Amino acid sequence: EVLEIEPDHPWSWLQLANCQRRMGETSLAIESLRQLCRHHPQRIDGWKNLGLLLQQQGQSTKARECLERMVALAPTDAKNLCTLADLLTQMGAMEDAESLLRAASHGFGQNQQGAQIWLRLGILLEQRGETHRAIKALHNASLLEPKDPTIQLPRVGLLLAIGQPEAALKSVNELLEQHPNHLDGLQRKAEILQFMGQNEESLVLCQQARKQDPKRIDLQLMELYASQALCDWSQRDDQLADLKASLRQRPAPSLQQPEIQALPPFGLLTLPLPSDLVTQEIDRWVLKQSGTIHKNVEAKTKEPQLPSVHNGNGRLRIGYLSADFRTHAMGLLLEGLFEAHDPEQVETYAYSISPIRDALTDHYRRSSDHFHDLSKTSDQQALQKIEADELDVLVDLSGLTTFSRPAILRGRPAPLQIGYLGFPGSQGHHLVDVILADDQLIPKELENNYTEEVWCLPHAWSTSYRHAMPGITREVLGLPETGTLFCCFNRAEKITPAIAKTWMSILREVPNSWLWLALKKEALSRLKQLAEQQGVKAERILTAPYQRPVERFIGAMACADLFLDTPDFNAGAIGTLALNAGLPLLTCAGKRFTSRMGASLCKAANLDEMVVDDLNSYQKCAVELGHDPKPCKNKLKQNLNNLPLFQQQRWANDLCALIRSKVS
Hints:
This protein is an alpha/beta fold.
């Protein structure tokens, strides 16, 4: 009615458009806003609302024109600048967004409004994989707004992500001094403490934060993780039930759900969760972490895209992507990887994505044909580098673990992408075509549990044999010099109430036996309490610090008689070191990747008889071996050098033959 009286009345055009939008009459709302902008081209709110509505309708180019007009009218409005930057990011115009934000940051100088600009720039750089530049931008934001949690927390999270927990803890403590009950701050501090191994303190913070929001899923997870790390199973059944219920309520993964929090995938593998829920959350994490740069990447089909080998039957170009070309479990496991490849058959490329470098990194650099440090490059630059090498195959050795860069694999820089060992399970629908295994790790009847195609090698595990450091004895380690010494060096998170009680039953049935664990004080104390409750003296549960270097650790493991594996999540790299030490591994095979690693290792060590199907058989076998462990140890030691586990060149040749057979 007003517009009939006064056709160019700006407020009425704006409110008419709002009413039309809320009634679902989007095209009419857009036309009303165009009328407003036509009659009043200086109205900032007209251009802004029109741009946002066009953006919602997928008309990004027209939306950009409107929002650029908006910014031109108010070049010092930080919020509007961020709105345009968000649109540019969504469009994939990352360089334009960065240029806009950098120019604006200089314009604001020390003005507090500039904090939002630096924050947006830091988030943008993080999305592009430029973590070091992102840290600097987020630091500048925090200097301008030192008391604003929304400014401080992104920097804290990024510091933790790049392996600087002490700096992250200092920053979050400063935040909590200003805002003691800030929920996101409490959650982040609990996460940092877990990363640093301070699980008691983390558990207290999780419980404190959950009083504010009992249904917050990341706090549910972290409380469960902390409890597992402490071997505190008092609430385990309830915690698992609550978590499953929360996961079931979450929507299917989508790029259109920025408000739905993504959960780090690796920890989920430690829990007895249905595979569909784990895959759901892996897909959500990958879509979130790969950023807007790959929004247009179509989901790959089930059939992998096979490469054509360079020069007909010439050398395969195989790239290995890893965050663990360093002194790390996977780095040590695969130390001889590049030397094992036949240079007449394969040209090797190593792509390192970890900011950590050490002597082992230098070894990988020397032994590969081409070594590229991608840790300081953006995701786009990393993609371009890998694509320029024209690989036949890219093998992902890390998966979704620390320092992972899912955007690289999501961008498909190689025609065939393979996942191997570093991530003990499926990586979902978006990253790799194939998962490497053997018929013990992934039997035929379990292949449908994986989104990837399963390719089986004769043996999945392979490493180079290491000689133990001499002179390591039980006496040197402060261990009992007589009796049967059982051991398990798996992390506390892998121990469940069922296996812990089984261990106590074994100790009861094998007189003069001991259980040697690698646990921190709090977890060890609870295991000793359980021992007393189960009729086993607490002093029969032993601990000793981790031995460095790895050759000393192997020498220490050789002092034990039998490695008792954890059934739900088996020994992986630690298992290879145990077998290297001539220490037999007893394992109980389940139905998940994590619960079949031991069976695969035993196959590679010619110890098929050490794989059982249930805890009763596990206990019976452990008791029999506990009464007379020498024959099994002698059998393993006599054949160590010839075990398939230590034939790395054979493994490399098998891999190449498998790839060629699939290509042809």
